[in-house]
Amino acid sequence: MFEEAHPNQTGKVSALxxxxxxxxPMKLSATKAANNSFVSQGLYSMEIVRHEETNGAVHAALQxxxxxxxxxxxxxxxxxxxxxQDIFCVxxxxxxxxxxxxxxxxxxxxxxxxx
Length: 115
Fold this sequence. Notes:
The N and C termini lie far apart (37 Å). This protein is of the alpha+beta class. The radius of gyration is 18 Å and the shape is elongated. The chain has one domain (2-15, 31-106): Alpha-Beta Plaits, CATH 3.30.70. 8% of the residues are buried. Strand 4 and strand 5 form a beta hairpin. The chain has helices at 37-41, 54-68, 96-106; strands at 2-3, 13-14, 44-51, 73-81, 86-94. It contains 3 helices and 5 strands, in the order ββαβαββα.
């Protein structure tokens, strides 16, 4: 996560998210996974917490994770917000159940069942 300029006159904070889907990832809407409603309803969720110090923001993020459940998938990222003079922290979350369904939907047809 980063501010586009310092000081931040726009108030915008950007995030860059990478994945390991290979060099030519296929859109989920073009796979069998498109038949699952969660793909269009939102596989991911995002919550923002703020605090004057990084430790406080991370502690607040941990509370978000505990509320959602540790069995789910979570990524936490922080950056400073020079306009508001605090720490901007985002918790990106996804459902472990949805993740498992995607794995099943995207498994090649000739592949074995994994127990």
